[in-house]
Design brief:
The complex is a heterodimer of chains A (about 300) and B (about 425). With about 300 residues, chain A is an all-alpha fold. Chain A is built from 14 helices and no strands. Helix content of chain A is about 85%, strand content about 0%. The longest helix of chain A is centred in the first third of the chain and has 41 residues. The termini of chain A are far apart. In chain B, strands 6-7-8-3-9-10 form a 6-stranded mixed β-sheet, sandwiched between helices. Chain B has 2 domains: about 210 residues, Rossmann fold; about 130 residues, CBS-domain (Roll), CATH 3.10.580.10. In chain B, helix 14 links the parallel strand 11 and strand 12. With about 425 residues, chain B is an alpha/beta fold. The chains are: A mainly alpha (about 300), B alpha/beta (about 425). At the A-B interface, helix 8 and helix 9 of A face helix 4, strand 6 and helix 5 of B.
Chain lengths: ~300, ~425
């Protein structure tokens, strides 16, 4: 005896989706999606060429220096060791490709996420609209949207970056929205009372005061994009993800581990630096201009002592 | 309170007419009920909406400090925010210099806020990411003024509150009192016509609060701004205000000068506030002053005694031909002389109690102890009137009739006398 509805009828949703994607979305919108690829392709190519062109010794000098200015001595020492180790392991080139992918993905996340976050902070309606979309983006497993991405964008490193953007975008939007909404209402009132326009209010008051939260969002986005590296390799993105992926395919445990170590080192390095950037915005407590100045000229000392204590 | 019955003139910087602000629910219905005089609680119970500001009308003159005093929830913060439309009023009219604020579009409103109004906040509302000077510059930067010019103006405003040394410090490093001075400087930097002050000193220690009140009064005596000042502290209102409105449940219960409020509270609510007020600090000599009976040195003692008795004074002042007092002759001493015998000069005491019209009664208790009428002198030192010490004590004891003029026009006269 039939006791379930599906014994009589199964909703052919899978067929419908297939039809919609294959028969309608792909033939009609492929050119549009291809056009979307263009800016990502440009930035990615430019970064990759640039990073691979830079002589290795420049990296050995530059990365620890940046780490020292921003995050203090400890992180600088770690950065130096990491840069040396990545080369010793023979995965320097892969690391640079992954780094350029990550930077591209994060750059687009910021470009899209910050304005959307600001919009969401200003309009409750927009926030209500975008929230379920963000929930879906965060809960849907990336493997699900790899297929349509391949159909629309093809395979390669750019589709990999696009998948990464989809995966890593939500925290940028959410935390920008949160940061701006958390700015004390009396400060916003003060801005308005002195005749600030909405744009002045945004750039003079809301964004500077939300900067710390926005930077936390950037950090989250960065970490999420790193965790997409291997998955993106499934659709043809190169770099460290590919090293892991090929190691997996050949059951070459050593090769897979190399890729893994590279990703972890890169993740820790980027995490420490961006976290210190976020805290710098808060600890400086002066103008944002000054905290960036501090960051360039004398920030190292301050944060160094904080780290050492 | 009845709408302001004073005729509108050019002196009126701010005119507010029948202002309503309703939160939630059916605004029309709430306004109708509020106009019918229904209580706030009942309106809320039946309509789930609150008339935070219910039918308020008042006007503020050029150079006047108008204080709105009310407890929390009385709607005073909503009222002040309606004036620069941080909160949009539901109904009514607001005129600043005759311009209808509610008719302004966004651009005009922004210009109004940037050029004519400024605001000081209860919790200072300084921007933590800017230095003290950058905070003070804010209103000028928003207007689009160049960096050097606005820095210059900001430093001048900081000098007015004595903080120019702290220009490049983040505001969080300053104490509460200093932070509010920065808030004040930020308000002053834009050269506002009208200053809106939302409980500016409430978050400060009592001693600092008093200093800030003095500082505000000192600044006001130079700048002659028009100030709308919100407070929950009646003592602060009495100290600062030229006129005071007592607000309760969105309405003005009473509007008047500090002396009117204390001497003649409109109802039990106001009376409850004024009960523990130190009247010696509220009333000034000008309030009690009345024309003095005088004699000149050439007058006969008998004439002096007659005039003194007519005026029922405990003594009579001797003045010169220009009206400057020379001394006083106590009534009792006049009895010593027989008619025509002796001279006033011999009886006159050169050391006589005197006061200015704007002095607080509390400063004159010592003078009262002499038992002689206290001479009230004008700015030049001429005898303007005199005050019987007994009337001072009658007023302090709560006898409103002792010092109260009957109507508003006399109030104006008294105020004129206060400020020669």
């Amino acid at each position: 005896m039939a006791d379930r509805l599906s014994d009589f009828y199964t909703l052919p949703l899978d067929d419908w989706i297939e039809v919609v994607v294959k028969e309608w979305l792909v033939p009609n919108f492929r050119p549009a999606f291809q056009a979307l690829q263009w800016p990502i392709d440009q930035l990615l190519g430019w970064l990759e060429d640039g990073l691979l062109w830079l002589p290795y010794p420049v990296f050995v000098a530059m990365v620890p220096l940046i780490a020292w200015r921003v995050a203090g001595t400890r992180v600088a020492i770690f950065a130096l060791s990491a840069v040396l180790l990545l080369d010793l392991l023979g995965i320097w080139q892969e690391t640079m490709i992954t780094l350029s992918m990550i930077i591209t993905a994060v750059a687009f996340c910021v470009m899209v996420g910050v304005p959307l976050g600001i919009l969401a902070a200003r309009s409750d309606r927009f926030a209500g609209l975008i929230r379920p979309v963000l929930d879906i983006m965060q809960t849907i497993p990336p493997f699900v949207y790899l297929v349509p991405i391949v159909m629309l964008f093809g395979v390669g490193i750019v589709p990999g970056v696009i998948a990464t953007i989809i995966f890593a975008l939500p925290p940028m939007i959410r935390l920008t929205n949160l940061g701006i909404r958390q700015v004390q209402s009396e400060l916003v009132e003060a801005g308005l009372a002195f005749g600030a326009s909405r744009r002045q209010l945004l750039f003079e008051i809301q964004i500077p005061l939300a900067l710390r939260t926005i930077m936390a969002g950037l950090n989250q986005t960065l970490m999420l994009s790193l965790s997409m590296v291997v998955i993106a390799a499934l659709i043809g993105a190169g770099g460290l993800g590919l090293t892991v992926f090929t190691g997996l395919g050949r059951l070459d445990i050593g090769r897979a581990s190399l890729g893994g170590i590279g990703i972890v080192l890169l993740a820790i390095l980027l995490d420490r630096i961006t976290q210190a950037l976020g805290e710098g915005g808060q600890a400086g407590r002066g103008s944002t201009k000054r905290s960036f100045r501090q960051l360039l000229f004398k920030g190292g000392r301050q944060h160094g002592t904080e780290d050492d204590s | 309170m009845a709408p302001d019955d004073r005729a509108p003139t050019d002196r009126h910087k701010v005119v507010v007419e029948h202002l309503f602000k309703v939160f939630g629910g059916d605004a029309e219905e709430t306004i109708r009920r509020a106009q019918a005089g229904e209580a706030k609680d009942r309106i809320y119970a039946e309509t789930h909406s609150v008339a935070a500001v219910a039918d308020i009308s008042f006007s503020v003159d050029l150079g006047e400090i108008f204080v709105v005093m009310g407890l929390s929830g009385s709607g005073k913060s909503t009222l002040i925010r309606c004036l620069n439309r941080l909160i949009e009023p539901t109904r009514g009219r607001i005129l600043l210099d005759g311009e209808d604020v509610l008719a302004m579009d966004a651009g005009a409103l922004r210009r109004l806020r940037a050029h004519k109004l400024s605001m000081v906040f209860q919790h200072f509302a300084l921007f933590p990411h800017k230095t003290v000077a950058e905070n003070v510059e804010f209103g000028l930067k928003v207007r689009g003024m160049g960096a050097a010019e606005r820095r210059d103006k900001a430093l001048r405003a900081l000098a007015q509150v004595g903080l120019e040394a702290y220009a490049d410090v983040p505001p969080d490093n300053l104490s509460g009192g200093m932070q509010q001075r920065v808030g004040l400087a930020r308000g002053l930097a834009v050269d506002p016509d009208i200053m809106l002050m939302d409980e500016p000193f409430s978050a400060l220690d009592p001693l600092i609060r008093r200093d800030m009140q003095d500082e505000l009064l000192a600044l006001q005596s130079q700048l002659h701004m028009t100030i709308l000042f919100i407070t929950h502290d009646l003592h602060e209102a009495l100290r600062i205000g030229d006129r005071i409105a007592i607000m309760k449940d969105g309405r003005f219960v009473q509007t008047g000068t500090p002396e009117e409020i204390v001497a003649r509270p409109a109802d039990d609510y106001v009376a409850a506030f004024t009960r523990d007020v130190d009247r010696g600090r509220v009333f000034r000599m000008g309030r009690l002053s009345r024309p003095a009976a005088t004699v000149t040195l050439g007058d006969a003692p008998g004439e002096a005694r007659r005039r003194c008795d007519d005026a029922a004074q405990a003594g009579i002042h001797v003045v010169d031909d220009d009206g400057f007092p020379l001394g006083i002759v106590p009534r009792a001493d006049l009895d010593v002389l027989e008619d025509g015998g002796g001279e006033l000069r011999a009886l006159m005491r050169r050391n006589y109690p005197a006061a200015r019209a704007d002095q607080e009664l509390i400063e004159l208790y010592g003078a009262c102890a002499r038992g002689l009428p206290i001479a009230v002198l004008d700015a030049a030192g001429r005898l303007q009137g005199c005050v019987d010490p007994l009337r001072i004590f009658a007023l302090l004891a709560g006898d409103a009739a002792a010092g109260m003029p009957a109507c508003r026009s006399e109030t104006a006269a008294c105020e004129a006398a206060k400020e020669p």
